[in-house]
């Protein structure tokens, strides 16, 4: 029989939750903030965005859950759950409203100072994503997004500014959120503006190269300015299985997985893998690299791999490759149950992915997104009984514990999102992830009042016992 120490997570394990500025903050044009690419999205990043903000039209990100004005209340609730870390992003256009500005916006800088101070007051380590689907809209419109090499300069200026400002407060950083989603949601991941009739893989891989260089330069700056900090890359890495044991399905699923792992290979190993040459040749891709680019990538790899995991899917050879914010969308697995939004629940897949990634890289992992979107019901007495969320949390955390026993080095776990926020994929409020309910509907109606769900108290117990209660 296992003793209690076998059930506990490692000493110093980071427990918390994760949000993104564009899905929570609101205040889209307050205190000098410029518009970002999320501010012209109405139905989620998987649907076309407007070129500009249309007067009188409802944009969910404009108010979101008003975290910008209510963060003290929300951080206090996270503190009550016992978080010792909290992941959020800095909205680039709060700091540089257009992205290419020469000087930063002081009011934007001050907001994050105040936010990090509030987190530190409750003993929470800030875990900060530098670019989380929030590229300034001006950089999309004027430069075409990350397909333009000029963004490297703008991004490094932004990074240097925030590293210097928050060097005493933030010790965990990540450069680009889910960078491998360049293939499935390139507007969100790389703010890419496509030209009519072009081979879309050309700007996707060219933009990816610019982002690799920018990320490595950010690692260099971070290590110089904050020597005791860790700076990682971040990918969407929900599992992909072959649909059958037919060799074509097995190898097809392997190749599809490698399309994502290409991004972590470059970030963590510091060089372009040999297999990319054939992919580029067969798809007529010609990535322009300037002298010194590959050396920068080699010298400054990421310190750790942060990743999101929500579900698994299966791949059949020859099928069209689609994807959304939860990862690749393939064929249904008959052995798994699905959420109301069709995401298959696969806790064992999380252990599988943790082992897959650690075997490949031998660098620390950080599970920075894992969660369940559900249509929660508020009972007449105001309670919200979300046992399905508790079951999802328990089953996935048990597999994380098994992965740690397998020898995987895992820094921590941040549930997505600990409070209801605007869905990135669908822009809904109805698709709720939180342990904390926010009174707001898909049309933007509601009081924004916060309420604790049953899962709030359960996650609190998990953290209190360092996982022993699971």
Automatic annotation (TrEMBL):
<keyword id="KW-0378">Hydrolase</keyword>
<protein>
    <submittedName>
        <fullName>6-phospho-beta-glucosidase</fullName>
    </submittedName>
</protein>
<feature type="active site" description="Nucleophile">
    <location>
        <position position="369"/>
    </location>
</feature>
<keyword id="KW-0326">Glycosidase</keyword>
<dbReference type="InterPro" id="IPR033132">
    <property type="entry name" value="GH_1_N_CS"/>
</dbReference>
<dbReference type="InterPro" id="IPR001360">
    <property type="entry name" value="Glyco_hydro_1"/>
</dbReference>
<dbReference type="InterPro" id="IPR017853">
    <property type="entry name" value="GH"/>
</dbReference>
<dbReference type="GO" id="GO:0016052">
    <property type="term" value="P:carbohydrate catabolic process"/>
</dbReference>
<dbReference type="GO" id="GO:0005829">
    <property type="term" value="C:cytosol"/>
</dbReference>
<dbReference type="Pfam" id="PF00232">
    <property type="entry name" value="Glyco_hydro_1"/>
</dbReference>
<comment type="similarity">
    <text>Belongs to the glycosyl hydrolase 1 family.</text>
</comment>
<dbReference type="GO" id="GO:0008422">
    <property type="term" value="F:beta-glucosidase activity"/>
</dbReference>
<dbReference type="InterPro" id="IPR018120">
    <property type="entry name" value="Glyco_hydro_1_AS"/>
</dbReference>
């Amino acid at each position: 029989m296992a003793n209690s120490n076998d059930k506990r997570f490692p000493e110093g394990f980071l427990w918390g939750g994760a949000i993104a500025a564009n899905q929570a903050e609101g205040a889209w044009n307050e205190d000098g903030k410029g518009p970002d690419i999320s501010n012209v999205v109405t139905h989620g990043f998987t649907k076309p965005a407007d070129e500009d903000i249309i007067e009188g039209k409802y944009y969910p990100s404009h108010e979101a859950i008003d975290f910008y004005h209510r963060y003290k209340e929300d951080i206090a609730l996270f503190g009550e759950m016992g978080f010792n870390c909290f992941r959020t992003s800095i909205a680039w256009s709060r700091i540089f409203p257009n992205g290419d500005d020469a000087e930063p916006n002081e009011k934007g800088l001050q907001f994050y100072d105040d936010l990090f101070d509030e987190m530190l007051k409750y003993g929470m380590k800030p875990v900060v994503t530098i670019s989380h689907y929030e590229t300034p809209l001006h950089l999309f419109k004027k430069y075409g997004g990350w397909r333009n090499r000029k963004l490297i300069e703008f991004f490094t200026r932004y990074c240097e500014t925030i590293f210097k400002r928050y060097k005493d407060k933030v010790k965990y950083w990540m450069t680009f959120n889910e960078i491998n989603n360049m293939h499935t949601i390139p507007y969100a991941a790389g703010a890419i503006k496509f030209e009519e009739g072009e081979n879309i893989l050309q700007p996707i891989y060219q933009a990816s190269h610019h982002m690799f260089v920018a990320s490595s330069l950010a690692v260099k700056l971070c290590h110089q300015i904050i020597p005791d900090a860790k700076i990682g890359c971040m990918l969407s890495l929900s599992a992909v299985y072959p649909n059958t044991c037919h060799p074509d399905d097995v190898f097809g699923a392997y190749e599809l997985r490698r399309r994502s792992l290409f991004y972590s290979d470059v970030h963590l190993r510091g060089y372009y893998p040999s297999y990319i040459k054939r992919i580029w040749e067969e798809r007529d891709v010609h990535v322009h690299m300037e002298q010194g680019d590959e050396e920068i990538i080699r010298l400054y790899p990421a310190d750790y791999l942060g990743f999101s995991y929500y579900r698994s899917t299966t791949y059949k050879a020859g099928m069209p490759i689609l994807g959304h914010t939860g990862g690749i969308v393939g064929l249904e697995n008959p052995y798994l149950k699905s959420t109301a939004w069709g995401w298959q629940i696969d806790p064992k897949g999380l252990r599988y992915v943790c082992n897959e990634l650690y075997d490949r890289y031998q660098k620390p992992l950080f599970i920075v997104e894992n969660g369940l979107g559900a249509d929660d019901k508020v009972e007449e007495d105001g309670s919200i009984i979300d046992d399905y969320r508790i079951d999802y949390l328990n089953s996935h955390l048990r597999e994380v514990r098994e992965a740690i026993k397998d020898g995987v080095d895992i820094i921590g776990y941040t549930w997505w999102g600990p409070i209801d926020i605007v869905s990135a994929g669908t822009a809904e409020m109805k698709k709720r992830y939180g342990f904390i309910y926010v009174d707001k509907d898909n049309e933007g109606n509601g009081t924004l009042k916060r309420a604790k769900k049953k899962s709030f108290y359960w996650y609190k117990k998990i953290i209190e016992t360092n996982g022993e209660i699971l």
